[in-house]
Amino acid sequence: ANKKKLYSNTNIKVIAVHIVSGLFFLGILGFLVLNINKYLKNDPGFTIKKVVVENNVNVSADQIIRVLGISKNQNIFKLKVNECAEKLLKLPSIKNIRIFKKLPDKIVVRIYERTPIFQFYNGCYFYVDDEGIVLDKMTRRPDPSLPIVEGVNIPVVNFGTKLEKPQLFMAMKAVKAYNQSTVKKSITITNIDVGKSDNIVILTSSGGTIYFGKDDFLYRMQKLNEISRDLTKKQLVFNVIDLRFENVPVTLRN
Q: Can you list the alpha helix ranges (DSSP code H) found in 89-202?
């Protein structure tokens, strides 16, 4: 019995020694980490000397750096990347962002901008991306590279907000389907009228009109592409194509 008691006491002492040793080691480690961190945050060798902006097109590097508020006298370890990203994501034209610290003194900011897919008029022409976000970009004259969406009333336009109008959502789906199809090679869309909830009316650069319906946009674009290829092969120009029907009525231009 005495031997068993002695054995138990010995085990307890060994465990206690291990615990004390572990706590001592953790204390030393914490002290070292704290002092290394303090040293790095005050070492002039880790002062930011260069901020590089990549992948930006419409938003200037100067504007991005200004919004970030990064000082070139700032310590690179004191820079809070998440806070910087939040500032930039408030710009309507920016969809995503990645920020890298390249030791000892360089910050790389990679921008992913929103790309407009159509425009609409409300005193001037506003750009909208594939998520329905209004970009902080507008022009007095229409952009010939983008279709103009008509037939919807938007009294107030705020940059960076998502358009919730059902007609605009329908137009957005139609433009996405158009951009994914090969019909772009033969037909250029200039205007999209969404004034009627049951039918999108598309106008083309050649003066043709396409009644597009209100759903199955990818399927309808495929049919439009087949019709366009057939007309091109026969050297014919359409006046009206009505895609609302399975047997598509097509009228030709004289």
A: 166-180
Q: Name 152's Cβ contacts closer than 8 Å, sequence gap at least 6.
A: 120, 165, 167, 168, 194, 195
Q: Which residues contact 102 (CB under 8 A, 6 or more apart)?
A: 108
Token digits of residue 214: 């209100």
Question: What's this model's pTM, rounded to 2 decimal places?
Answer: 0.76
The C-alpha atoms of residue 186 and residue 175 are separated, in whole angstroms, by 15
pLDDT digits over 189-208, tens only? 999 999 987 899 999 999 99
**Measured distance CA(226)–CA(29) in Å, rounded:** 71
What three-state secondary structure class fits 196?
A: strand
The tokens for 31 are 């002290």
Bond before 104 cis per omega within 30 degrees: yes
* Closest to 146 (Cα-Cα) out of 134, 133, 123, 129: 129
Task: Name the residue among 151, 146, 226 with its Cα closest to residue 190.
Answer: 146
| Joined tokens for residue 200 | 């999108």
Determine phi and psi for 252, rounding to 5 degrees. Answer: -105, 160
Tell me how many degrees the CA angle 162-166-170 measures, rounded to the nearest 5: 95
* Separation of alpha carbons 223 and 219, rounded Å: 6
| Token representation of residue 173 | 């789906």
C-alpha to C-alpha distance for 52 and 95, rounded to whole angstroms: 18
